[in-house]
Structures are given as C-alpha cells and as structure tokens.
Amino acid sequence: MFVSQSRKRRVEGGAGRWRWHLDEIFEKINGEMHCLWRAVDHEGEVLESFAKKKRDKKAALKLLWKAMKKHDR
C-alpha cells in the first residue's frame, strides 16, 4: 500500500501534529463580566468551555483535567 510523505508525517506526529491549549478571556454576559475558560484546538475550534462570574483557579483546573481526559494530553 502506498502512503504519501505528507500523510506519513501527519500520522507520525510531525509538524502537522494535532494540538490544543487553554484560553482565558473576560466576556460580558447579560451585562455582567464573566471569566470564560476555553479549550481550543490548533485550528481555533472550541472543544470545551466554562464561564464563571469570578476568576477561580479550582474551576480552571477542573476544565483542564476534563479536557485532558476527553481530548488526550
């Protein structure tokens, strides 16, 4: 079976490796400021999100662990 070089690099985890990161922003929801945490992939697609009125480390870590479990490390 023939496999192209670009596909082979993608499969082996080369430069085109799938990645995601956490993003934290402040958004106005119903006229009130909220802290919004998002797990975003390398193409900008939102994988998970969570909003809270106050910035909370515990909530951010919960989202991180949930995203890591669901979308791989």
UniProtKB/TrEMBL annotation:
Top-level taxon: Bacteria
Domain DDE: 18-71
Pfam family, one: DDE_Tnp_IS240
InterPro entries: DDE_dom, IS_Transposase
Protein name per UniProt: Mobile element protein
Organism: Mameliella alba
